[in-house]
Structures are given as structure tokens and as C-alpha cells.
Amino acid sequence: MKQWIGLDIGGTGIKGALVDQDGIMSEPVAVPTPALEGRERILEAAAGLIGQLEQQASSHDIAGIGIGTAGRVDRQTGSIVYATDNMPGWTGTGIRQEIGKLFPYRISVENDVNAAAWGEAWLGAGRDAHSFVLAALGTGIGGAFVYEGRVLPGLRGGLGEIGHLIMDREGSLCTCGQRGCWETLCSGTALSRIARETHADWSSRFLVQAYTEGHPDALQAMDLYLSDLARGLISVQQAYDPEVIVLGGGVSDGYPLWSKDLQDKISQFSVVPVRLAKAELGNRAGIMGAVKWAMTDTTA
User: Which InterPro entries does this UniProt record tie to the protein (predicted)?
Assistant: First the structure.
């Protein structure tokens, strides 16, 4: 049976696995991302994982390599159009070209959040949806729009940059250079900041736990957080009109604990219905989706 090598290159780690045409995935392997050491070292680490997986698949035909990566991606060339300073020098990296020098397979490259959306559309929370937006609430807020099973990239690969919707024109400076972006209010980084501002020794996880236990300070902090989260989700619904918004990323782990309050706020603020669902694939989504893109990609 044919298998694909799937890779998920993030700012802190690189994960990889073998995936077959039915979505059956091998045990993932992982290495830290040498992000501060430059593009050559990142590519070297990625190639090392690919080589390891290639050996594991010795009895199978490898149909191709799918790579999901942090940064805005040009699908046609498999290169990085733009990446933040979390990965210095990653902008302009020709991933398909460089990895293609080392391995004789078709190579498809996609943005990491888009890759997660491909995965959720294939075998996750979006598999039965005609259209959905993936809102990835992590270090920042990433997004992807899926229509009829395909992730739409936009003109420059940035169609789903929902984390940079401006919610407060006089708000905090964002890493993108704008002020008051949604991710400055509702990302995992923002939730950690809110926790520390509530009590200096609180983590975001402790804040959510205290909120479930009815701690007054936690209730007040989470009320503000969930209000901003609700308004952002309403804006996403109004802009994209999806059948469902799928919540992913580390913050979504707490969704079962605060989903009712969030839905109540959406009902209070919104003139249109907003249907939410939690992502189902967890940390497998990026690898699975990179492979699904490799199966679909006609440019490689």
C-alpha cells in the first residue's frame, strides 16, 4: 500500500509520520526545531526526519512528501513568502527545491494551519461540513477557510489570517505591526498574560481551573476574555459565512469548560447564528493534513 511522508514544521518542534491513503498514521517521530540557528539547520533537521521515515517505509511505495510549515506559503513554488521572527531567515526558503535535492519524491508544501484544516476536513471535525473555518487558538491565532473539502489560499496564501482582524484600534502592538489584533486579545499568549495580570503566579491553565471553581477574580477575567473571543468569532462568521467554525490549538483544550458561557455571549452579541465545534485530530492534524494536501496537490 502506498504511503506518504507527512511533516509538520513548527516554531518549537518538527513532527513527522507515515500516512496511508485511508489516513492510518504511524507513530510520529519528532525533533526540536533549531529555529534560532537559521534556515539551513531547520532544513537539515527536517531532512533527517524524512530520512528516518523513509527507512521505516522500506517495504512500501512512498507516493510523496507533504510538509506543513509555519509561515505564509506559495503553494506553486513550495517556498515561504513570509515568516515571523520566531523563525529567523525562514522567509524566502525554497522548501520544495531544497528538500527535492535530497529525496526523489513529489513534494507539496502548505501553511501549517491550512494543513491542519486539510486534516480536519478529511478525517476530523469538518469532514461532513460543506464549509468551515478553522480557528487555531495557539501562540497566536491562525485560520483557514475550507469550502467543499478544499482549503482556499487567497491571492498570497493569507485568506485565513483571522488573528489579525483589528478588534481595538488603540490596543496592544501585535507581532504583525498592527495594533489591537484579535490574537493580542484571545490567543494562548494573551490568555497567559490575562492570567498573570489576574494573579502574578497564575498560569492560563490555573485561571481556567479557578474559573470553573467560581473564583471571583477568575470569573471576571474569563468574562472579558470570552467576550472578546465571542466578538471575534462573530466577525469570522459574518466575513466567511461558514457552516461551522472549528476551534483548534492549545486554548481549545479548555472548550468543554467554557463553551456554554461562550455560546451565551455569542447569542447575546450576534444577529446571526454561529455554530462551533472542537477540532478532533489534536496534534495529528498538521501531519494528516500535509499528507492530504500532497494527495490533492497538482503543482508538485
Answer: ATPase_NBD (IPR043129), ROK (IPR000600), ROK_cs (IPR049874)
**C-alpha span between 112 and 289 (Å, rounded):** 9
Q: Which three cell numbers stand for residue 24?
A: 492510518
Q: Could you tell me the CATH superfamily of domain 127-279? A: ATPase, nucleotide binding domain (3.30.420.40)
Domain map (residue ranges) of the chain = 3-117+283-296, 127-279
Query: Within 13 Å, how many C-alpha atoms sit on residue 159's CB side?
Result: 18
Bridge partners (DSSP) of residue 30 are 15
Task: Annotate 7-22 with b (16+ C-beta within 10 A) or e (fewer).
Answer: bbbbbeebbbbbbbee
The one-character DSSP state at 220 is: H
Residue type, 193: R
- Total-model pTM: 0.93
Q: How confident is the model at residue 155 (pLDDT cuts 50, 70, 90)?
A: confident
